[in-house]
Write a structure and sequence with these properties.
The protein has 14 helices and 16 strands. With 497 residues, it is of the alpha/beta class. β12 and β13 form a beta hairpin. The strands form four sheets. Strands 4-1-2-5-3-6-7-8-10-14 form a ten-stranded mixed beta sheet, with helices on both faces. Strands 9-11 form a two-stranded parallel ribbon. The protein is 34% helix and 12% strand.
């Protein structure tokens, strides 16, 4: 393949830029530096290779790859590339948000990559005309596209920066805003101007169809990811996406799911209240009402397992065993959204004994529902959502970070496909590469790598020790009894010793 003069000149400039960037990093400040660590918290010998999908003889693609690498090495360059995802409205105008405005998606293409990450946004739901009207007044961006910005910046697993997203930074990134209020399950158009459309599952289908014209038809992997209601949406839609691609003649695309903070339990509330709105209504009752109101659809195998009671399929431990596609589950053991709908409200006052027991039991119940999930990451933290947070690399379970666990999962699936054809069951990962990670310590935030937590009344950040004391656990006294420093005790609790 021959290069034109302009292309050759650009290549020379980029190579010089790369050399300058590397030299600048080596000699900055007049002395030699080793490569900086991407986070201050050490992760031992963990490493993340830059994962370039092979370039297939296309010079434009090669230059895009080189420019991406140049930017990652030379972030202060005046010619910094635009890394934002850009808004596209769906060509099919009949698939809409709740208020009839056009649905859409944000995309940042990576021409040299055959990996696609499609992310479903979260944001609760509404299940009646009354609470949908209220939601429209207070959270309109979750029901209408009329005020969506033209671009979005990806963070966490959607980031295009290797230091923030070491394994997926070079993938094609797609963010689908949540504007259907139906946990991505609805298939009902708007009947009149006073009604709402609920078309979450159809929005996903239409986005995937459009992505086939933008390079998805040549993909190797499609990772359908989501947080909160988007995480539940992954469980409800991952098999439907796989079936759609197969029906379009693209069954070779490996479809996988990543469900973050969407593994809810249908347990009894700590204190029963009347089902008025999303916060007060017990999860089971809210979904029972919602699935009728939305015209919700669920995975076929789960529907057949629960005829007439399809609401069961919105709860992870019931739908997961029916799925064909591999899914990695990320779930805080003490999820704030779960505690909210269970009527556990952690205010500035110390937690009462009954609440404390309920919280501990929640962790035990969640562990039990996850024990047969082969690929998961479940820290003992009080939090909600993680994969798009800028601290997502900092959280560890038994010394392994979430990006590392996802990389191990990718490797296990790759080896399974190579050795067993189209088998979607992950084989055991290589030694030192775990992917079934769940904390064994029994209290919220007993894992010292949990994200910072703030006092709900003062807004002040609390240390882990302050938080556990607030929850009724006397870390200082127990450490003193054991002859240990409090932080060392927390580390031992986290490791299960």
């Amino acid at each position: 393949m021959e290069m034109g003069a302009g292309t050759l000149a650009l290549a020379v400039v980029v190579v010089i830029l790369l050399a300058e960037a590397v030299e600048s990093r080596r000699t900055r400040g007049g002395r030699t530096h080793s490569a900086p660590s991407y986070r201050s918290r050490s992760e031992g010998t963990e490493s993340f290779p830059l994962d370039f999908t092979p370039v297939e003889g296309n010079m434009d693609t090669l230059m895009r790859q080189v420019q991406n690498l140049a930017q990652s090495l030379y972030p202060c360059s005046a010619r910094r590339l635009d890394q934002d995802m850009k808004l596209n409205f769906l060509d099919n105008s009949t698939v809409t948000c709740n208020d009839g405005s056009p649905a859409g998606y944000y995309i940042k293409e990576s021409k040299g990559s055959r990996r696609w990450l499609v992310f479903l946004e979260g944001g609760w739901y509404c299940f009646s005309k009354e609470n949908c009207d209220s939601r429209y007044e207070t959270m309109r961006r979750l029901m209408s596209s009329s005020r969506w910005p033209s671009t979005r910046t990806g963070t966490g697993i959607l980031s295009s920066q290797p230091e923030e997203n070491p394994h997926w930074w070079n993938a094609n990134m797609v963010f689908i805003p949540y504007c259907s209020s139906d946990v991505w399950s609805g298939a009902s158009p708007q009947k009149d101007q006073n009604d709402y459309a609920f078309m979450g599952s159809l929005i996903i289908q239409e986005v995937v169809k459009e992505l086939l014209t933008k390079g998805l038809d040549n993909a190797k992997v499609l990772l359908l990811a989501g947080s909160s209601a988007g995480g539940t949406g992954v469980l409800l839609n991952v098999d439907r996406v796989a079936e759609l691609l197969k029906s379009q003649g693209h069954g070779s695309v490996q479809v996988r799911g990543l469900a973050d903070s969407g593994w809810f339990l249908d347990n009894k509330q700590y204190r029963c209240t009347e089902c008025v709105d999303t916060i007060s209504c017990a999860p089971t009752e809210a979904i029972k009402r919602g699935i009728r109101y939305w015209g919700g659809v669920v995975p076929e195998r789960c529907r057949l397992d629960h005829p007439g009671e399809e609401w069961n399929c919105f709860f992870g431990y019931k739908v997961f065993p029916t799925l064909k596609s591999p899914v990695f589950v990320v779930q805080w053991l003490f999820d704030e959204a779960q505690l909210t709908v269970d009527n556990i409200h952690l205010t500035g006052q110390p937690v009462q004994e009954g609440q404390w027991r309920y919280i501990q039991n929640l962790g035990i119940e969640l562990r039990n529902t996850l024990k047969n999930v082969p690929a998961m990451f479940a820290p003992a933290c009080l939090s909600h959502e993680v994969i798009t947070r800028n601290y997502w690399m900092d959280i560890q379970v038994k010394g392994t970070s979430l990006p590392r666990a996802l990389q191990c999962w990718d490797r296990s699936l790759f080896h399974s496909l190579r050795n067993h054809g189209n088998s979607s069951s992950p084989r055991p990962p290589p030694r030192g590469c775990p992917l079934h990670l769940i904390d064994s310590c029994p209290w919220p935030h007993c894992n010292p790598t949990c994200p910072a937590i703030r006092d709900q009344l003062t807004g002040r950040e609390m240390s882990v020790i302050q938080f556990l004391t607030h929850m009724g656990f006397d870390v200082q006294r127990m450490a003193q009894q054991q002859g240990l420093e409090p932080n060392k005790l927390l580390g031992m609790l986290n490791s299960g010793t």
